[in-house]
Design a protein that fits this description.
The protein has 174 residues and is an alpha/beta fold. It has helices at residues 18-23, 46-55, 81-89, 136-150, 166-171, and strands at 8-13, 35-37, 69-75, 107-113, 116-122, 153-159. The chain contains 5 helices and 6 strands; from the N terminus they run βαβαβαββαβα. The protein has a 6-stranded mixed beta sheet with strand order 2-1-6-3-5-4, with helices on both faces. The protein is globular and about 40 Å long.
Length: 174
C-alpha cells in the first residue's frame, strides 16, 4: 500500500530561524512524506508534530504495555533527539549536551497526549557503520536499532543544516 511500517516521520530539527525553516523543504527529496520543521530547543513546531503523530496512530482500547504506542526518536549524534523528547514532555527528562554520545541507552518514557498513552524512546545517536567505535558506542547503537524494531512509529530527527544523507535513510531502516 506504499505506507512505511513502522510509520516514519521526518523531523527536521534546529529550524530556529526563517532561513533555516526554508531549508526544511529540501527534505521532501527523501520521499518519506512531509518533513516537520521544528526547534526542539525552543519548542517551535513540536505541537504540530504531535498532532500529526497522534492523528496517524491506530486506535487502541486496552492499556497493556504491549498496546501502548511506542515512538522511537532516532538520528545522528547531536541532531536534537533528547531536546525533542524534553520539549514533548514539557520537562527536562533527558540530559542534553553538545558532547556526542551523552545518550548511551534507549530510554523509555511514558506520557499521555490527547488521552492516548504513549511511550517515547530516546535513543543514542547512530553514526555511519565505519565510524562506530567498538565498545560502548557499538552497544549503544545496537540498543538504538532494537528500539526501532520494537517501535510502532519512528521519528527520524535530522539537523536542518546537515542536509540529507544516505546515513539518514539507513538509520530509519531503508
Amino acid at each position: 500500500d506504499g505506507e512505511l511500517r513502522p510509520p516514519v516521520y521526518v523531523v527536521v530539527n534546529k529550524a530556529d530561524s526563517e532561513a533555516r525553516r526554508a531549508l526544511v523543504y529540501q527534505f521532501y527529496e527523501l520521499g518519506m512524506g512531509e518533513p516537520y520543521g521544528i526547534s526542539a530547543l525552543h519548542g517551535t513546531g513540536t505541537g504540530d508534530l504531535l498532532d500529526a503523530l497522534v492523528s496517524g496512530l491506530p486506535k487502541t482500547s486496552q492499556e497493556d504495555d504491549d498496546d501502548i504506542i511506542k515512538i522511537a526518536i532516532v538520528g545522528k549524534p547531536n541532531a536534537g533527539k533528547s531536546s525533542l523528547l524534553n520539549q514533548l514532555l514539557g520537562k527536562e527528562r533527558a540530559i542534553v549536551s553538545p558532547i556526542p554520545g551523552t545518550t548511551r541507552d534507549a530510554v523509555d518514557t511514558p506520557m499521555v497526549f490527547a488521552d492516548i498513552p504513549l511511550i517515547l524512546i530516546d535513543t543514542a545517536g547512530i553514526r555511519r557503520r565505519g565510524r562506530i567505535e567498538p565498545g560502548v558506542e557499538k552497544y549503544s547503537v545496537l540498543r538504538s536499532f532494537r528500539a526501532i524494531e520494537r517501535a510502532d512509529v519512528v521519528l527520524l530527527v535530522i539537523d536542518a543544516l546537515s542536509g540529507i544523507s544516505a546515513q539518514d535513510l539507513h538509520i530509519a531502516g531503508f
